[in-house]
Design the sequence.
């Protein structure tokens, strides 16, 4: 295509970095190389007993856990999560999870997992948003790790109420019975990588893990795009 045509297309579909707003080069997807370099990576996959793993100590038997980047309110990279969750920008979840998976591949962090399992949304929520953002994060992981993704065995059967408005006790209990393992055979003997967009209290992931652990000989690892 000639420059003129490219410029016209650029007028209607400007390809701008979601973080800094600079024009993207053709090989760049959503984030420019500069912003990609500046992602505040945790590098937790390089450390056993890292803070993500510690968050689940005493909750359930976790094999491995990590998050790709640190999330702080008001930071430029908060935009990524906002885009993914509220702005219909599913692809950004897949792009960044692929990145994370590629960077972790070298030290075989998740090499022995069998299946990628995104935290399911409640069907009502799914219908409202139109997609499950965790599933798009899972796609990026599954692609690079060359594993399958299971989006049916675990189901969210209860909507949890907004956690920030709850007292400590309620916050502790309101994820009980939220998830249900609907296919025990599908997860038996598997090492499952549970995937979500962001890790905050960890109670959602814990509830999902408790449901999954009702399967026989299940091992659980955790990956989230961001950690608060
Ligand atoms: Zn940028």
Sequence:
């Amino acid at each position: 295509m000639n420059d003129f045509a490219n410029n016209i297309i650029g007028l209607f579909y400007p390809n701008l970095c979601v973080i800094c707003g600079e024009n993207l080069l053709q090989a760049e997807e959503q984030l420019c190389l500069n912003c990609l370099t500046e992602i505040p990576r945790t590098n937790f996959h390089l450390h056993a007993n890292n803070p993500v793993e510690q968050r689940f100590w005493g909750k359930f038997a976790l094999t491995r856990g990590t998050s790709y980047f640190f999330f702080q309110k008001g930071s430029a990279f908060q935009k990524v999560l906002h885009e993914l969750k509220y702005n219909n920008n599913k692809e950004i979840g897949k792009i960044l999870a692929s990145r994370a998976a590629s960077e972790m591949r070298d030290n075989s962090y998740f090499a022995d997992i069998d299946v990628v399992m995104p935290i399911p949304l409640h069907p009502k929520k799914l219908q409202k948003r139109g997609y499950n953002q965790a599933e798009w994060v899972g796609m990026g992981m599954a692609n690079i790790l060359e594993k399958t993704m299971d989006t049916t065995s675990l189901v969210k059967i209860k909507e949890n109420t907004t956690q920030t408005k709850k007292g400590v006790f309620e916050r502790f209990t309101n994820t009980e019975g939220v998830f249900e393992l609907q296919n025990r055979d599908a997860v038996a003997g598997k090492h499952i990588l549970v995937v979500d967009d962001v890790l905050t209290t960890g109670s959602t992931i814990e509830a999902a893990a408790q449901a999954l652990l009702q399967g026989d000989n299940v091992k659980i690892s955790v990956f989230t795009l961001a950690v608060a």
